[in-house]
Amino acid sequence: MKRLYxxxxxxxPCLCEAQTSKEWFLQGxxxxxxxxxxxxxxxxxxxxxxxxxxxxxxxxxxVALINLGRYSxxxxxxxxxxxxxxLEGKYYYYQAVALDSxxxxxxxxxxxxxxxxxxxxxSEVYALRAEVYIRQKEYNTAIxxxxxxxxxxxxxxxxxxxxxxxxxxxxxxxxxxxxxxxALGFGIxxxxxxxxxxxxx
Length: 201
Hints:
Blueprint: H1 21-33, H2 37-50, H3 55-67, H4 71-84, H5 89-101, H6 105-118, H7 123-135, H8 139-152, H9 157-169, H10 173-185, H11 190-198
Helix pairs in contact: 1-2, 2-3, 3-4, 3-5, 4-5, 5-6, 5-7, 6-7, 7-8, 7-9, 8-9, 9-10, 10-11
């Protein structure tokens, strides 16, 4: 399933003829919200031409490329963003997303480790690590990472859903059913099917 990752910012009305880096950047943000990722990429690249030292612009180029499925090309601008702002954890997370989409599990774990050193309060980082461990059938390690993801964000429905799956795989039926119920409560509709199949009283 193709995943879309959006950078959420307050948006100003889209300008008809951008002239400054900020104007191009805002147009790019508007295009992201409209899921027009080619236009977003074009706007962010124009913004970068006018302001090469803005890490957020480089990160947004990377995000647009991820949304377009050009994962390998996303790595370079995201590394540039990290170089310009090495203490911004989300830039490492975006890179890990691109690497995960390329199937590079070892690199995902390396980059998310860097992300955690910079900022250990990113729920999505632990959830992404858990996905890697689930694919490697290291379910207990996945559960540990999802415990941390949920500790940071107790409304992360997908984290409950993933933890339920991992618990189910280690034959913790009660724990899995409890997590599926929580996932359903946070809007993950697929949890209902799991409850129907595995949690009949």
